[in-house]
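ugh ok fine here u go
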Amino acid sequence: MAKYSKKAGEKVGEAMHEMKEGKLKTGTGKKVTSKKQAIAIGLSEAKEAGAKVPKKKS
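structure:
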C-alpha cells in the first residue's frame, strides 16, 4: 500500500471537506461531486506543496 505523508492526508481531508460543502471546483470551474475526484485534487495540491506523494501506478 502507498505511504502518504501527514501533510498529504491533511490536504485530502481539506479537499473532502470543501467537496461536502459544495465549494470545491475543478480546473474548468465545475462543482466536484465525486469522492475520487476530491481525493485526486487533494493529492495534487499536496504534491505541489512538496508533500510525499507516490507516483500513480499504471
